[in-house]
Amino acid sequence: MVRRRWWMAVVVGTALVMSHTACASDEAQPDPVDEDPVPAAMAERLAAELDNLDGLTADDPGCVAGVVEGGQQTVVAHGMADLDAGEPLHAGSVFDLASVAKMLTGAVVVALEEDGVVGRDDLVADWLPELQRVVGDVTVADLLHHSSGLVDYGDLLDDDGIDIDDPATQTDALAAIAAGPPAQLPPGRDFDYSNTNYVLLAEVVAAATGRPFDEVLADEVLEPLGMVDAFLPTTRPVRGEKVVVGYEWDDESDDGWVAVVSPWTQVGDGAVHATVADVLRFATAVVDPADAPGVGGERWAAALVAPGPTPEPSGDGYAAGVVVSDGGAVLGHSGSWLGTSTAMVALPDEGVVAVALCNVDDLDAAAVAEAFLERR
Q1: Domain range holding 269?
Q2: Does pTM surpass 0.85?
């Protein structure tokens, strides 16, 4: 199969921003000027879905949503990127991906595995000997599939009196893990979602390559797949012309909406910032991989979506940062963090992908993405 890449042209309106593009070549190019008709029906669908879910209007924070189907990418936006500045969301808005970024961490590990740098059967303690007491016999595969039994570092930081609003670095998280209890379940036996797993995967990647995780992520995944606006910040708050402001509703506030951001700077389990088009590029490489080695190739994609031996309680499988449902007929991941809700859903047999990125932290982004698949 041929890997497809997608680019967008931005058409700016008052309340909605819409983009509709066709397939382009495999070489990264500037965004072309697109003269295809703007799919107003999809924009209206997004507005209706947000109103139905949370009563959100064009004057509230909202979402950017995108679909790839039949060789066409469509991206629409509804709501505000920055309430104080009066800036609306648009197709190029950049969001914190939250846990959707776990797919990218898994993609890095799979790429390094294909290159022989890291193995799934490697003991984590061989790469991170300072954590031997805690990780014991936990393997890289156990981290990938959330079957390590390790306590979530967020709970450990909370036990230390560090709140989500307090500064906390990757070093702080690792210190809490190192001082915390050993795995609470036998490795490889049960599924137990823990952000500790993906923070440690980032550390394994750094130890195995001798390079910072953000550099390896960019070189191994973001750049090869043409995720041109994606990046992993190392400081908070994140500044940038296209970076949205995140919000939560506060009944005690005069305006209702309050801008929120967490100063936590951990990597591996989230924090990657990207556009809807970036996530669509990644997802289309997974569902329509190239007949070639390396990132974006068939072997890489197959390894990325191969579920582990310990399914989630729902029966879904958890692969390398990708949730696998209905025997592989549905792939995806969702995420939520202060000021952001995100989701990617793909139907690989149909070659269809939907993504929703929202700057509200209590919104069902997965329902937004799924709505575009259900109403095609």
Answers
A1: 5-101+227-282+341-374
A2: yes
